[in-house]
Structures are given as C-alpha cells and as structure tokens.
Write a structure and sequence with these properties.
Elements: H1 5-21, H2 26-39, H3 44-56, H4 60-74, H5 80-89, H6 93-100, H7 110-126, H8 130-137, H9 140-143, H10 151-164, H11 168-181, H12 189-196, H13 207-220, H14 245-251
Amino acid sequence: MSLPKTLAEDVARNLVMVARLIDDDPDQAYAYSRIALRLASRVAAVREAAGFAAYATQKYAEALAEFRASRRMTGSVELWPVMADCERGLGRPERAMAMAGEPEVQKLDKAGQVEMRLVAAGARRDMGQIDAAIVTLQGPELASNAVHSWTPRLRYAYADALLEAGREDEAREWFGKALEADKDGATDASDRLAALDGVEFVDALGDDDERSVATADAGEHEPAERDVPVEDDLDEHDDLDEHDEDDEDDDADGSAKA
C-alpha cells in the first residue's frame, strides 16, 4: 500500500535506523521498529523489519507473528526458514522439523534451502539427535568446493555438530574449511580451532597499561551523542490492529530460549 509522502519519509527513516543498528544495538533497533510499526502496520516491509528486530532481541513469539503477517501480505516463502527458527526459539523443535518438510521449502532459492537445512539440523540437536543433525547437514552443498555466502556457516555448523558427537579430528578439519571460506569473519571458526589446539590468547597490554589507555581515552574524547527515537503524533487509524488470532496464540507462549 502507498503512504502519504510525509508519513512514508518518517517510516523510511525508522527502517533505516533498524537496518543500521540491528547487529550492534538490537534493543535500539527494536525501539525504532516499533515506531515504524505504529506508523505503518499495513506495510509488509515494516512487518518484516519488525520481525527481524524482535528476532534479534529473542522475542520469538513476536517475531513469528510479524513474519506471518508479512508473508500473508506478500505471499512470499522467503521468511520460511527464520519462521521455523522462531519455533525453535519458542522451544518447539518438532514444529521446526515439520516446517522443514513442507512444500514451501522447495520454493526457496538455494540460499534459503541451505538456511532451512541449518534450522532443521539445529532442531535435531535441540531434540538430542546429534547423529541425525550431522546427516541433515550433509549434501552436495557441503561437499562442494565452491564458496557462497552461506558456505562458512554451513561448514561451521557441520564442524560444531561433529565436535558435539565427539568426532574431534573431523571437527577440526571442518572448522578449518569454514575458516578458509569465511573471508568476512561471519563465524568464530579461528577461535574454535585455537581452542581445539589448546592455544590461549593473552592480551599484550598489562593491567597498568590498560588503565593508562583507558584514562587517556576518557580525557581526550567526549561521549558521542546518539539518536533516540522520538515518536511522532500518530493518526488514530495507524495503530496496530493487524495481528490475526494465530499470531495472538504465539504471543501466549512462554519466553523463548536463548
């Protein structure tokens, strides 16, 4: 749906802040997402952004409700894997596994299918089925030497599952493969390898040096101002009234696990 120009600009500003802050300050990103949601709850992109902000702060029932709303509006299956992961977060790995077998998975692109496989493997581990989790992660994507955006995470998940199963030598090999593919530092594969090899990192600065640096920094720099969301006057018709009964059911679930 289209919004009046001024309202659209206000919504866009809040969505920009959500995207900017979600990795480093998810709580602040969540605050901005709530403002955007109050302003334009009937816009699919706003519901999706609100879902990711809630997901980043482990509000899984709320995230699932927003993702479902966005999917109803667009008809897209793109959010299917993260919806399944919300089920895991709510302590319902069986539902995540059921979603992994639904026809929607076949409509996902390759990245989405790999993401679904990661979620399914995580659900297997939640249920204590470590061997099944390892098998779930195996496939042509794991065996391929080609590197894609999802390759480091897939190899890392496989290594982590192997380690949990007590297969340390294989785990070390796959952590190494994950590190080779991880040019952007998306995983902590290097730290996991170091831990397996018994390597400990020691801070080069002593305690006295650290205190000196901290004191110098405190004297030289003033605290940076940060933007704080300010809610605009809201039109009485732009409230949150779009949640369906199935969304409310999810909100009734208990707090999500970490």
